[in-house]
Each structure stands twice: as C-alpha cells, then as structure tokens.
Amino acid sequence: MNMLVEGEWRTDAYETTDEEGEFDRQETSFRDWVEDDPDAEFPAEAGRYHLYVSHACPWAHRTLLTRALKGLEDAISVSVVDPYRENDGWEFSPERLGCTADRINGAEYLREVYTAAAPEFTGRVTVPVLWDTERETIVNNESEEIMRMFDTAFDDVAARNVSFYPEGYREAVDETIDAVYGPINNGVYRAGFAGTQSAYEAAVADLFDALDHWEAVLDDQRYLCGPVLTEADFAMFVTLVRFDAVYHTHFKCNRRRVVDYPNLWNFLKELYQLPGVAETVNLDHIKEHYYRSHADLNPKHIVAVGPDLDFEAPHDRDRLPGGPPEALQR
Fold this sequence. Notes:
This protein is of the alpha+beta class. It has helices at residues 58-70, 110-117, 143-152, 170-185, 187-192, 197-220, 231-250, 262-272, 283-293, and strands spanning 3-5, 8-10, 49-53, 77-80, 129-132, 137-140. It has 2 domains: 3-157, Glutaredoxin (3-Layer(aba) Sandwich); 170-328, Glutathione S-transferase Yfyf (Class Pi), Chain A, domain 2, CATH 1.20.1050. 36% of the residues lie in helices and 7% in strands. It has a 4-stranded mixed beta sheet with strand order 4-3-5-6, with helices on both faces. A two-stranded antiparallel ribbon has the order 1-2. Strand 1 and strand 2 form a beta hairpin. It is globular. 45% of the residues are buried.
C-alpha cells in the first residue's frame, strides 16, 4: 500500500493485513477540533475551512452527508479527487465529471496537501481532510470527528437548524456508531482484503450477524437510535448505499444483499430521499474506484454493470413513530 514516509512518497511501505491475514486499518493522524468558540485554536467560521473528499469513499461520504443535511454548503467549500486511485494516490482531475481541481492549494495529488501541513509526514494519505485556510494546515482527517464537528460546532453558520447529536440520545449515538463501525463499516473491508480463508469467513460472519441485528432493530423503530435521525444513521447509510453495487460482489460479501433485508432497504431509501442526500451519492465514482483501483482483487479492472437500484422507490418507514426533523421534510 502506498504512503508517505518522512514526506517522501513510497509504493511499498504499508501492508493491509496482519500476520493472521486480518485487514489492518491504520489510524488517522490529524486530530485537532473546530469549536464553537471564537477564542478556540480552530474557531467555527464560515468560509474558513475546506473539505477534501472522494465521492467513492464511505468515510468521506459521511462528512458530505452531514455538511449537506446541516446546510453547510456555503460555509464549507469542497474539492473532489478522481475516483481512480493509481500508484500516485488520490489525484485531482478537474476535467473529469464529478471531480474538481484542488481549489485551495492547487495541488496535483492529495499527498501534497499532507506535506503542505507536515513536510515530514509519515502515514497513509486518506480522505476526508479538513483544511484550515487561515492557518494553512490540516485540522483533522478522521471522518467521525469531522462529522461531529460539522454537526455541533457550526450551528451559527448552518442554513438548517437541525441537530443529529441531540440531547438525550448522545450516549446511544456514540455506542451505535461504535457498534456499526467494527462489523459493518470496517467489516466489508475485513472481508474484501482478508489474506486468509479463515479471516474472510470470520469477517463475513460478523458482518451478516450485525446486519441481521439491525434489521430486527429497524422492525420496531424508525432509526438506529429510536425515532430521531442521528449521526449513527449516516454511518450506516454510507455502507448500505455501496453494498449491493460493490461490497456484495467485489468484497465477496454475498450471503445476502441489502435489498433482501426489508427494513434496511426501506431505511436506506428513506435517507437517500432526504433533501440533499442524493446529490452526495455518486455510484459511477463508487463503482469505478473499487473495481478499478484494487488491482489485487480485480486485475483486469472490469467494472460491474449492475445492479439496477431504485433508491427513489417508495419506502415504508412512515409506519413507525418519529421521522426526520421538520427542516428536512419535503
């Protein structure tokens, strides 16, 4: 796996599996926080921060979702990398549909943004990245924390008065995000990049046990934490929306599809149909990235043509109490 080592780009510096064949995800490196405090090191201000993303990446997607549903599009600008990641890593290809130039630093590759913040940086170059245009540095590259910052620190500049980390649900939201992460968000990668049959089978078992669990939960309540829409639902959404198109086939997570789970499928459709969410989903980028960028899994780079998924079809979640906040109701 490619990464920066003391500021130099290396193509042979990171193994994706451990000695037991288990997928090994490296921790993120930049962990500062934007705060709703004018005296903070990184105060929340409209126009100050810039988000680097890939439409293909589920971790970046959760930050785009929060940005869209909070109404932060005018407050936080965005640059989008090419979905096809070659040996040089994430690249800016403004000539391609759905991609942009680096609108802040003028970089050709995302790794240049990392070294602009830390010239001797060692680590993987990942999205999302939250950049401070005033201090000219990376604030944070951990998706869960960026999602939380967008949700809680930028209320004064958000176009919608909504909270997805509401009082009375915060412990449940944190616990649910953690519960979804291991077997589902990261579980599909544990299956797809497993180095042994036993590691793969263990990952698939954990994944579908968890999906079965949440299918049962959603039979009795509208969202993962109850009647209110929260960040935990965003964390689940980004994996579910990629599942049938990519993870089921490419990562061999083929015990069942999301469309085979009535509650998860209807939950997915409801979230997709919220204002602004569909615009954050780019299945062309998603499929191209996974099928073309993982040469060890798909050496001929052939992109699957299916399946046909109708995220706009009616859902049945109105049968349960609760629903999206009034500001998101069409």
